[in-house]
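hey
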């Protein structure tokens, strides 16, 4: 655990934090927010920021967001600073620690922050097989490609692999390739030198250097531009990077994990993903099954989320009724674990008693799970019907399809030419010309008031 103390709190916090972590914490100090941001920008990362409550915490959090650095912030101050503590929490601080510090309290806060970032709960045999494979290969330096639908827990399993690897004591750095604009992603990964481009006011250490010695997770790598993939391939093969605007290569020692919710083999065929990069990344593939195929996990995660959000909202413990559990197991969960968590958070807030019934388990638009499942089934049926109808047209000429459409519409209107032309969106003259052509070709054309006779 790497801690960065910001402000004039070194003397009060250093000893307590080391006691709290039994000497296992690496503690650094920064006298100001500007120096702290410069340190983080330079690649000297941290897992937790302990900040003087009297400092500009809102400005610090805004600076972290601008630099796309995700680190939890905990405010610290004397107990009499109640208003400052409230403002710090509102600004985005995770917790508030009163001073003088208590080692047990700091240990509890650090444990809570660590737990929030690495919760991993599973019970289903389908998921157990994936986890066993992950743990079997965790000790190697092999690249791993983690695939699965959005919300299945790809980043969670990546952190699990890192925690059980020989790099566990080193940084785990994650970068979302889909969330960063293409023009900025190269700098985010490889860093840049001062003046490399407009706005590069100082050297910035990229995620590769920041993760050196540890693990780098490339989240949703399928969204990376194919031109940047070539530079990534070189970095993975040679363990050397070039900063944007740099003049000499920089060696790095990292393990690469990557995730994707797309079929990368299809992306290779489409030309949007390099085949040689896929080979480099896909030494081992951990494929996470969707939540709908993990009933054991639905049950375990449901109980966990109910307890978590009842406590978080200051509510008494609540339990799911048998009917609610059955409804949860039958739901399709297209958003997987993320959707399940949001649904149960909502259920905790909507339920009026200690037992959560199926009426409290609704989607954001108020639709119940049974209705959602029915709608999903109907949509699938309609999609299948449309696909079947489309397939039936393949191999036929446009003229044949047009003739059948015109005659079927005329049959529907009992031979009324004007009504049929309006439905088809063509002029009555065009319709009559088509019908005369069909009659000359020997096709049976119904007269007004008649239906076609089909042999």
């Amino acid at each position: 655990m790497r801690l960065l103390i910001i402000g004039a709190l070194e003397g009060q916090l250093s000893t307590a934090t080391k006691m709290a972590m039994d000497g296992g914490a690496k503690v650094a100090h920064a006298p100001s927010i500007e120096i702290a941001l410069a340190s983080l920008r330079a690649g000297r990362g941290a897992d937790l920021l302990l900040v003087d409550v009297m400092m500009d915490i809102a400005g610090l959090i805004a600076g972290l967001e601008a630099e796309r650095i995700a680190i939890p912030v905990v405010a610290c101050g004397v107990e009499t600073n109640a208003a400052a503590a409230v403002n710090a929490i509102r600004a985005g601080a995770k917790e508030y620690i009163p001073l003088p510090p208590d080692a047990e309290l700091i240990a509890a806060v650090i444990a809570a922050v660590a737990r929030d970032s690495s919760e991993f709960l599973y019970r289903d045999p389908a998921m157990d097989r994936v986890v066993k494979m992950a743990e079997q290969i965790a000790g190697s330096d092999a690249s791993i490609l983690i695939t699965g639908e959005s919300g299945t827990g790809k980043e969670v399993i990546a952190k699990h692999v890192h925690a059980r690897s020989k790099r566990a004591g080193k940084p785990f750095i994650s970068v979302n390739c889909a969330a960063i604009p293409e023009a900025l992603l190269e700098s985010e990964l490889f860093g840049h030198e001062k003046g490399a481009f407009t706005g590069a006011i100082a050297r910035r250490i990229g995620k590769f250097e920041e993760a050196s010695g540890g693990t780098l997770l490339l989240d949703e790598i399928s969204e990376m531009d194919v031109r940047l993939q070539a530079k990534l391939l070189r970095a993975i093969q040679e363990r050397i990077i070039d900063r944007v605007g740099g003049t000499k290569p920089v060696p790095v020692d990292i393990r690469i994990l990557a995730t994707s919710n797309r079929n990368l083999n299809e992306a290779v065929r489409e030309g949007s993903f390099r085949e040689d990069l896929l080979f480099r990344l896909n030494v081992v593939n951990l494929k996470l099954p969707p939540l709908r195929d993990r009933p054991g996990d639905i049950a375990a995660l449901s109980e966990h989320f109910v307890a978590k959000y009842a406590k978080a909202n200051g509510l008494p413990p609540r339990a799911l009724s048998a009917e609610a559990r059955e409804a949860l197991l039958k739901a399709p969960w297209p958003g997987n674990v993320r959707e399940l968590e949001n649904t149960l958070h909502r259920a905790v807030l909507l339920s009026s008693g200690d037992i959560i019934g199926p009426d409290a388990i609704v989607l954001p638009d108020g639709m119940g799970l049974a209705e959602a499942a029915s709608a999903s089934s109907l949509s699938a049926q309609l999609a299948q019907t449309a696909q079947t109808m489309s397939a039936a047209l393949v191999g036929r000429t446009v003229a044949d399809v047009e003739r059948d459409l015109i005659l079927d519409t005329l049959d529907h209107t009992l031979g009324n030419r004007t009504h049929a032309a309006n439905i088809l969106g063509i002029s009555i003259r065009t319709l009559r010309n088509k019908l005369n052509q069909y009659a000359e070709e020997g096709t049976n054309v119904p007269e007004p008031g008649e239906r076609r006779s089909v042999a």
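The chain has a mean pLDDT of 84. The CA atoms of residues 16 and 296 lie 41 Å apart.
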